[in-house]
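Backbone shape codes:
***
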Amino acid sequence: MSIPRRRPLVAGNWKLHHGLHASEALARSIAGGLPSPCPVEVVVAPVYTALATVAAALRGTSVGMSSQDLHWEDRGAFTGAVSAPLLKDAGCTYVLVGHSERRQLFGERDEDVRRKASAALRHRLVPIVCVGETLEERERGATLDVVLGQVDAAFGDRDASALDQMVVAYEPVWAIGTGKVARAEDAQAVHVAIRARLTRMAPEAAAMLRILYGGSVKPDNVVELMQQPDIDGALVGGASLEAASFLPIVQAAIARA
């Protein structure tokens, strides 16, 4: 059976880093370092205050822009929140949903993640739905129970047309910002399980849905990860904060493409 050709996606999550000047400079450096045309989809997620600045810097390039989060309502009395219509207006085409830091530090529940993914789809933003287990969950052998439970909560009962517009990022919580990374074969096994679970919902859409790996992805470990057949790209944190470390990760994805 041949492996479907899925276009790799590399997303850089800048988290709470870089002001306007630094964000603009980094966006231009990344866009300027890519081949034209680029066989890999590249997306960056700056801080909210830099969205418009980065969108202007990326205009006319092949690099897309993501938000790091969104609220599930379009408008209302939600102080400090940002909605899908506002993100689209700022130039976003993607949005991270359910990142482990949102789950762990801000108490987001599976139901919140589902509502946010639905809001993104409603406004034609592509949700990158993040799933992953903690170290304690991994050590007691609960990785698949936790990860597939999060997948079910975010994707359950969606039809093929919805899955066609979604991305999954498997990011083991114990590997984020720690320098630890899942062994390539272990990450591949989780990706296979995620795809198998989604296949129950919509087989053809699941075969083409991109599943990224996130968790201390760096130039020195990305090549082995990108060689795995079900790892379709990367969600990159710290290594996305400089073009010198982010672009080699993109190049590894290009080699896989």
About this structure: The chain has twelve helices and eight strands. The longest helix spans residues 184-199.
